[in-house]
């Protein structure tokens, strides 16, 4: 077993960037949870899975924030606690991300019925919460979580680099599931997009009206672009931690490169923010309602002016039309 590399020192600018990424990720995850709580008509099964992913990302961002802020110099009780929470939340986030992709595949490609999807949701809960919990409890009980000198993290605690079987526990507490997600997500979303394209071509054969065909093609292209972005963004965010993991195992001094450290810090902590951008800000039904709420909040001071009694804000026609046109099974990828 190779001896641990020298510790990676974090400069204040690197720490500030990672803390900002944690805060934005927590804000994005909180916004996704808020949209689920505010608008019941948007609570499709797929968005319910997105809610649980957001909760995992929120816990992950909060634990990472504490770890980077503390800048641990050795193993302590709060280092172990932070490492356990981030290990559980981060691993759970991997499982929920794959669960959403698997649910969309079964719903769109395999056309799974309600009873089957209902039992599938229970299986997702058991696996996505249960497996990370068992792994985390075992790691804490065996004293594998501790100070890692920031060689495989960016200031937070994870697997103690002095443990003899540290590579095995790094794989079990994150890296194995991370690398499996690199393969699983692109395959599932490729199959989903392929199925959508086939269905689109078959539908066009029965759509002689050009305007209807163009409208359908426009909506399909938007869905296709988002389906491509989901695995692409996941890999772009997470690949830097995998690179530093490999460099640490090789004993390479490149693991302490400031660019890699910052990219690793942002990639591990910004998953909640990326999900918020894709599934809230880039989803028309949610974006319209968020803008409507912001406009109502901004118009309240003028409505309470002395010129007349306060008037209730008029409902947004765009929001109503979006709500009336939304299908019951709206996917978070459309």
UniProtKB/TrEMBL annotation:
Leader sequence segment:
none
The name this protein goes by in its record: G-protein coupled receptor 157
Q: Which family does it belong to?
A: Belongs to the G-protein coupled receptor 2 family.
Q: Identify its membrane topology class.
A: Multi-pass membrane protein
Q: Where in the cell is it found?
A: Cell projection, Cilium membrane
Alphabetic keyword roster: Cell membrane, Cell projection, Developmental protein, Differentiation, G-protein coupled receptor, Membrane, Receptor, Transducer, Transmembrane, Transmembrane helix
Q: Where is this region: Disordered?
A: 300-334
Q: Which residues form the G-protein coupled receptors family 2 profile domain?
A: 14-283
What GO molecular-function term can you cite, just one? G protein-coupled receptor activity
| Protein origin, superkingdom | Eukaryota
Q: Does the keyword Transmembrane helix apply?
A: yes
Biological function: Orphan receptor that promotes neuronal differentiation of radial glial progenitors (RGPs). The activity of this receptor is mediated by a G(q)-protein that activates a phosphatidylinositol-calcium second messenger.
Which Pfam families does its entry note? 7tm_2
What residue intervals traverse the membrane? 16-37, 49-67, 87-108, 120-142, 168-192, 227-247
Task: Identify one Gene Ontology CC term for this UniProt entry.
Answer: ciliary membrane
* UniProt entry tagged with the keyword Nucleotide-binding: no
Q: Which organism is it from?
A: Ailuropoda melanoleuca
Which GO terms fall under biological process for this protein? Answer: adenylate cyclase-activating G protein-coupled receptor signaling pathway; cell surface receptor signaling pathway; circadian behavior; phospholipase C-activating G protein-coupled receptor signaling pathway; radial glial cell differentiation
Q: Where is the G-protein coupled receptors family 1 profile domain?
A: 28-236
């Amino acid at each position: 077993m190779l001896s641990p590399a020298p510790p990676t020192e974090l400069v204040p600018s690197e720490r500030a960037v990672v803390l900002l990424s944690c805060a934005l990720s927590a804000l994005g995850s909180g916004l996704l949870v808020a949209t689920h709580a505010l608008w019941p008509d948007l609570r499709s099964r797929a968005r319910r899975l997105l809610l649980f992913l957001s909760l995992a990302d929120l816990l992950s961002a909060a634990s990472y924030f504490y770890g980077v802020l503390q800048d641990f110099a050795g193993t302590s009780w709060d280092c172990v606690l932070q490492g356990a929470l981030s290990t559980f939340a981060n691993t759970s986030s991997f499982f929920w991300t794959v669960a959403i992709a698997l649910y969309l595949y079964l719903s769109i490609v395999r056309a799974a019925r309600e009873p089957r999807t209902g039992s599938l949701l229970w299986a997702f809960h058991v696996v996505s919460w249960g497996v990370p919990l068992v792994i985390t409890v075992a790691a804490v009980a065996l004293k594998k979580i501790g100070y890692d000198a920031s060689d495989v993290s960016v200031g937070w605690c994870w697997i103690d680099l002095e443990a003899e079987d540290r590579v095995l526990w790094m794989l079990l507490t994150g890296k194995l599931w991370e690398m499996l997600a690199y393969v699983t997500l692109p395959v599932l979303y490729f199959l989903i997009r392929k199925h959508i394209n086939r269905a689109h071509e078959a539908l066009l054969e029965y759509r002689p009206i050009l305007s209807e065909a163009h409208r359908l093609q426009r909506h399909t292209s938007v869905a296709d672009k988002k389906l491509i972005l989901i695995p692409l963004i996941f890999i772009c965010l997470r690949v830097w931690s995998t690179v530093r993991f490999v460099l640490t195992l090789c004993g390479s001094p490149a693991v302490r490169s400031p660019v890699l450290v910052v990219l690793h810090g942002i990639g591990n902590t910004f998953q909640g923010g990326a999900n918020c951008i894709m599934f809230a800000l880039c989803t028309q039904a949610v974006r319209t309602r968020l803008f409507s709420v912001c406009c109502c909040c901004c118009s309240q001071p003028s409505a309470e002016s002395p010129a007349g009694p306060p008037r209730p804000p008029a409902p947004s026609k765009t929001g109503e039309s979006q709500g009336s046109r939304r299908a019951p099974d709206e996917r978070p990828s459309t």
